Structures are given as C-alpha cells and as structure tokens.
C-alpha cells in the first residue's frame, strides 16, 4: 500500500490518500484541496493564495504586479 501525499492547490498543506477533494476542470486539469474552505476560496471566490497569511504560499511584503 502506497501513501500518496499531494499538496493542496490553495494552501499547500499535504492531502493524504483518501481525504480531501479532487476538483477536475473542463480543460482536464485536476486540483486537490484539503478542505472546503480552500476549494471555495480558489474556485468560487477566485482568491490569490499569496495574499492570505494562513496559506503556505503567503508572500510577506506583498506581491508585485
């Protein structure tokens, strides 16, 4: 039995096998989420994970456009 651990596409936390949510887009890309909070922030609210301190992708000092 292999333990496949994938990072969450929003917060970068590990998603263990058998947990989390797999979201398949129409173009064929697959996104993994650890919780519904992450899924809603990414898909419904279209937020950037680099702007939130609770994510692993947070950039201190801001992001440049």
From TrEMBL:
Statement: the UniProt record of this protein carries the keyword Cell inner membrane: no
Note on cofactor: Binds 1 zinc ion per subunit.
GO cellular component: ribonucleoprotein complex; ribosome
Species in which this protein is naturally found: Cenarchaeum symbiosum (strain A)
Primary role: Binds to the 23S rRNA.
Residues involved in Zn(2+) binding: 8, 11, 34, 38
InterPro entries, per database record: L24e/L24_sf, Ribosomal_eL24-rel_arc, Ribosomal_eL24-rel_N, TRASH_dom
TRASH domain boundaries: 8-46
UniProt GO BP: translation
Cofactor(s) it depends on: Zn(2+)
Zinc fingers (C4-type) by residue: 8-38
Annotated keywords: Metal-binding, Ribonucleoprotein, Ribosomal protein, RNA-binding, rRNA-binding, Zinc, Zinc-finger
Entry protein name: Large ribosomal subunit protein eL24
Recorded GO MF terms: rRNA binding; structural constituent of ribosome; zinc ion binding
Family statement drawn from the similarity comment of this UniProt entry: Belongs to the eukaryotic ribosomal protein eL24 family.
Keyword Ribonucleoprotein (UniProt): yes
């Amino acid at each position: 039995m292999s333990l496949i651990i994938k990072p969450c596409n929003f917060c970068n936390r590990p998603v263990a096998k058998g947990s989390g949510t797999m979201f398949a887009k129409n173009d064929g890309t697959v996104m993994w989420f650890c919780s519904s909070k992450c899924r809603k922030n990414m898909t419904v609210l279209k937020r950037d994970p680099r702007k939130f301190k609770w994510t692993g992708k947070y950039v201190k000092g801001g992001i440049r456009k």
